[in-house]
Design a protein that fits this description.
Layout (H helix, E strand, L loop, with lengths): L1 H12 L7 E3 L2 H10 L5 E6 L8 H4 L4 E4 L2 E2 L1 H7 L3 E4 L7 H6 L3 E4 L5 H14 L3 H19 L5 E8 L4 E2 L5 H9 L1 E3 L13 H7 L3 E5 L5 H7 L7 H4 L3 E4 L1 H5 L5 H13 L1
Parallel strand pairs: 1-2, 1-5, 2-3, 5-6, 7-9, 7-10, 10-11
Antiparallel strand pairs: 3-4, 7-8
Length: 266
């Protein structure tokens, strides 16, 4: 409730006049385009290892640097009324506000937060009706998946050495919960838990997802040979995912979730 009230206060501080935005968060860029509010974007931060939807349009936008290293000087020169920050640009907040430029940071650690972010951005760009429609479709598709859980145990690995996994309180962790996969890392501590291959074998997951720093199943099994004895490996239920798109908190994530669900259920 406190987070919702804080977001509401931030939105109200933007006022009713149309904003001219510099958007450093790729998820927010995608949502604004899906809402039809892209005319209010002055510039964005470009991605180095992935693209931003819709690529044919976002690739033409003015850049103020990269996602991991946006330029304060270039942003100020554009004189935006507001800047939507990313997790990599939170350090710009005080400097921007010193120049009278409002800032907003939208977390997306769960599917519910994505819905709230759609609503928030819809209010900022004056596309509330579009936001309501987008949220309704997004939530309906999530509800359909929740009503047909997979009822399996699984783990989501993004580093082979050490074995680093996504815990439940992350966006990939929430995806697991949504499609009915019990995360074997549910009782581990910290934001970036490291599991031993012995622990994973003992937990014996029925599904193993991997990606980000791992691009090949053989690479993962070579570094962690005990994983080949898990039920997931024996039944060929190990799946590579483009985690960059799964970590981006936009309603387009539902397409990734439905694809994961179909792979596992098939």
């Amino acid at each position: 409730m406190k987070k919702i009230l804080l977001t509401l206060c931030l939105v109200l501080s933007f006022g009713i006049a149309k904003e001219s935005l510099v958007v450093l968060d790729p998820a927010s860029i995608e949502i604004i385009y899906m809402l039809g509010g892209e005319k209010q974007i002055l510039a964005i931060a470009k991605m180095q290892n992935s693209t931003i939807y819709p690529e044919e349009k976002t690739s033409q936008l003015k850049s103020v640097g990269t996602f991991s290293n946006p330029s304060l000087e270039q942003i100020i020169a554009l004189k935006p009324t507001a800047v939507i920050l990313s997790s990599y640009s939170l350090g710009l907040k005080e400097n921007l506000e010193r120049f009278g430029i409002k800032t907003l940071y939208l977390k997306a650690d769960s599917l519910d937060q994505i819905a709230q972010n759609i609503k928030t951005l819809g209010e900022i760009v004056g596309k509330e009706a579009n936001a309501k429609t987008l949220i309704a479709d997004y939530e309906a598709r999530i509800k359909h998946l929740q009503e047909h859980p997979l009822d399996k145990r699984g783990v989501f690995i993004y580093s082979a050495a050490p074995l680093m996994v996504f815990p439940p309180d992350t966006l990939p962790g929430d995806v697991f919960k949504t499609i009915g996969i019990e995360n074997i890392a549910k009782d581990t501590a910290g934001k970036r838990p490291i599991l031993s291959q012995e622990y994973i074998l003992q937990s014996n997951p029925e599904v193993i997802l991997y990606g980000l720093r791992i691009h090949d199943e053989s690479e993962l099994l070579k570094a962690n040979p005990l994983l080949s004895k898990t039920k997931a490996a024996k039944e060929k239920k190990m799946y590579y995912l483009d985690i960059h798109s799964l970590l981006r908190g936009t309603p387009r994530i539902i397409e990734q979730i439905e694809a994961i669900y179909k792979q596992i259920s098939d």
